[in-house]
Amino acid sequence: MKIFYSLILLFLISPLSAAFDTAYRGNVGVVFEKFDVNPSFVNSEDFITFQTNMDEKLRARNFLKGFEGGERFIPLLKQKIKEAGIPQEFLYLALVESNFSPKSKSPKKATGIWQFMPKTAKMVGLRVDSQIDERLDPVRSTEGAIAYLKYLHDTFGKWYLAAIAYNCGDGRLMRAIEQAGTDELEVLLDSEEAYIPQESRNYIRKILYVSLLLSDVDALKEQGYEYLLNRGIGGPSISSIRVSASPLVDIAKQAGMSVSELKKYNHHIKKGRLPKGGVYNLYIPYESLSTYRSNEFSSRQKQRFALANKHR
Predict the structure, then answer these.
(1) Backbone phi and psi for residue 54, each to the nearest 5 degrees, phi listed first
(2) DSSP letter string over 41-61?
(3) How far apart (Å, rounded) are the C-alpha atoms in residues 48 and 40?
(4) For the chain, where are the E strands, in sequence order?
(5) Greatest CA span in the chain, whole angstroms?
(6) Which residue of 9, 77, 83, 265 has the fewest C-beta atoms within 10 A of its own C-beta?
(7) Four-residue CA torsion sign, 145, 239, 8, 64
(8) How does pLDDT run across 126-165, given as a tens digit for each residue?
(9) Average pLDDT over residues 174-196
């Protein structure tokens, strides 16, 4: 969905950056309430200062670099998040935090678009070993993120608290709330008291900021960019195939792709072949699916024919 990247790029152009203020007219209540945040927070000195700093960072950063085919996954991931009853705006945070790169790795070794640590990944059912690392699988890691966010929301009762706990851990947030004597956002974000780590304070500020940014349809129309609102419809998408132990070179050949292109969509496969003893999800462009199915069918037919001749 190119619209996400177009919107971010357009924001780097000063007219749309200035027009961001128009989001406050009607979008604040809708967006903030999705996270159980009081809309008045947008006028707090804390958020205004953060917004100003983010404006400068966005202009200095190239968000279009490093998406690595992520636009093919976004429609599917948004649908999964929507079906789970989680605010779809959580996906925007993945765009900002990891540039939607499955290979993204933090200094603390958190990996993938959802920045899972190995322990947390395994806790939500992701496979992490020397052959398969599902933190690098956009679909499986999103399913893991959904499970974890729902657990955190059940624990704390508010989506902004779930977002904070996702970053700093549920135990850390529980201690912070006990120390602060409240779970109010403005109190928890107090930089002098430092109830929660600075990284976590910026984490929730950032998701609110980007959610507002990408919800401002009125600003796009006012600045003459309304044609972008129709982009991304019917755009490129991804297909999932189930494959047993096979060399990646054979799978790529069946799909009419190069091995390097196949790997671009399947960073979770760490070796040159799929491990024995299982069936695995692989992703290929939608337009390659018919080629793969045709070649796979032909391959099975040849195998059956060879086996039949062998037993004559």
Answers:
(1) -65, -35
(2) GGGSHHHHHHHHHHHHHHHHS
(3) 11
(4) 238-244, 279-285
(5) 83
(6) 83
(7) positive
(8) 999 999 999 999 999 999 999 999 999 999 999 999 999 9
(9) 97
Task: For residue 210, give the nearest of 43, 59, 62, 58 by alpha carbon.
Answer: 58
The model carries a pTM of 0.82
Instruction: Report DSSP state, residue 207.
Output: H
- Burial group, residue 261, by CB count within 10 angstroms (0-12, 13-18, 19+): middle
Domains with residue ranges and CATH for the chain: 2-230 (1.10.530.10), 238-310 (no CATH)
State yes or no: pLDDT of 59 exceeds 60: no
pLDDT of residue 312: 56
**Alpha-carbon distances, residue 125 vs 73, 88, 301 (angstroms):** 20, 22, 36
Specify whether the CB–CB gap between 4 and 214 falls below 8 A.
yes
Instruction: Please indicate whether residue 233 or residue 101 has the higher confidence score (pLDDT).
Output: 101
Higher pLDDT, 281 or 92: 281
Cα 87 to chain centroid, rounded: 12
pLDDT at 184: 97
Mean pLDDT across the stretch 63-81? 69
Residue 245 CA, distance from chain mean position: 28
Report the alpha-carbon distance of residue 187 to residue 43 in Å, rounded: 15
Cβ neighbors of 245 (< 8 A, separation 6 or more) are 273, 274, 275, 276, 277, 278
Report the pLDDT averaged over residues 201-211.
89
User: How much is the pLDDT for 273?
Assistant: 94
Rounded CA-CA distance 202/185 in Å is 12
Q: How far apart are the first and last CA of the chain?
A: 54
Which of these, 136, 51, 144, lies nearest to 102 by C-alpha position?
136
The pLDDT score that the predictor gives to residue 190 is: 95
